[in-house]
Amino acid sequence: MIHNTIDGLPPLRDIIAEHGLSAKKSLGQNFLLDLNLTSKIARQAGDLSNCDVLEIGPGPGGLTRGLLHEGARRVVAIERDQRLTPALDQIKEHYEGRLDVIFGDALAVDVSQHLNAPVKVVANLPYNVGTELLIRWLTPENWPPYWDSLTLMFQKEVAQRIVAQPKSKAYGRLALLAQWRCNAKLVMEIPPQAFTPPPKVTSAVVHIERLEKPKFPANAKVLERVVATAFNQRRKMLRASLKSLAPQIEDILNSVGITPTQRAEEISLEQFCALSCALENPAR
Predict the structure, then answer these.
(1) Quick one: 85 and 161 in the same domain?
(2) Can you list the positions of beta strands (E) in 156-274?
(3) Do strands 203-210 and 182-190 pair parallel, antiparallel, or not at all (unpaired)?
(4) Full domain range(s) for residue 264
(5) Residue with the larger pLDDT of the pair 21 and 195
(6) For position 63, which CATH number holds?
(7) Quick check: is 225 in a domain?
(8) pTM tops 0.85
(9) Cα-atom radius of gyration of the chain, to the nearest Å?
(10) Which of these, 204, 217, 127, lies nearest to 162 by C-alpha position?
């Protein structure tokens, strides 16, 4: 039987019907069934032919098939839902030796031992763990990390927070963590009706390329603490929101050219880095 799909496997709707699969809300699942769309998402990650690709939450394999069809050397997919085994086995068989599926919780599995460099992460992230996974990828113990790039789908509102610039409502901790050691851009939007079941919000894909070293010097732990403290009370002036970090906070802010009455969302990445260095080594 000839299947008119990108790769000769049956259409995803047929596979879902055959195995009685439905997206589980408790797992944050929304299945992407349009294989032309999943191939387009895969292409946003660039040339995959010499890369291992880490995918989180493959579901019935729409994006998995897109990645393999676009030439990924190997895909390592982490999936919590054992019901999807037959659908993923079918892909595994079709693309001999190029797909490994690990059943488990993406927050608990140590993937590094399963991947060979260079590594790209491409995923339609389950809504309930997306931000936490991103923060983990952006804040490893050692930099550069094991991955070269992250091409990730989020709710559009989260995607906008990653690429946000100062003086915007979306600007905050996520933007600063992502943009300090990476270049991040929003590459495509995906309407709710592309998914089964359709979520209530538009989704967007962000492509994040890691840099070898940060754009500005700062101690990662200090920077994370300063940014988290500043944005926890984003309505307050910095002299108030940051006073727990140093009693002489006004002097330190002035010393790096930040007006103590400014608020967190007005401060650039470069200024946050300078402030972190000043807090770490206050002038005696």
Answers:
(1) yes
(2) 182-190, 195-196, 203-210
(3) antiparallel
(4) 220-280
(5) 195
(6) 3.40.50.150
(7) yes
(8) yes
(9) 21
(10) 204
